Amino acid sequence: MNTVDDHNPIEHFQKWFHEVDKAHPEDEANAMLLSTKGVDGFPKSRIVLLKRFTWEGFVFFTNYNSEKGRAIAKDNNVSVLFNWKKSKREVFISGKAEKLPENLSEGYFESRPEGSKLSAWVSNQSEVITSRKILEDRLKEYKVRFRNKTIPKPAYWGGYMIKPSHIEFVEQDPAMAVTYIVTYNLGFDFRWYKGMKNRKSCMF
After folding, report:
1. Going from the N-terminus, what domains does the chain have, and what CATH number goes with each?
2. Which of 153, 151, 149, 146 is nearest to 104 (CA)?
């Protein structure tokens, strides 16, 4: 059993993240299931990629006009789940998603490959299209438009930081058939308060 006894959940996450990434790259450590309250009132979940994390929170990038972007604009309470099956670990985070400052989104956009930059212009996420040819034609159009030029970041594309208020670390001990859960809750004094519980294993 490899439990962590850190009192800072970001340190706890950092340790687990790097352990999973090194030992089980097939678990795709940075893949997280983002859940929002949809604009229709129903919960919606989709996989997004964690691009960085800091003491403040967890960052991902997307099209602000996408379904998830519109959902966050309406209600920015979100949750994410990291499910690392090979490592028999999960991390659940809930908090508020806030847009990154424009300069940080621009800095990340500049680091992306040309194809990824073009796709941000070509694909209007969640848009219904009648054929793939529409996207192919758009790609040709933008390749011509930005030929020999710096591809700028679209105004509707950028990052969010999820600022957590609750984090759970879940780890299964196969030998004991027990799942251990370490919880952290952010208090009104902006300090993290740690708790622990366990349950009979029924996951992974």
Report:
1. 9-110+156-200 (2.30.110.10)
2. 153
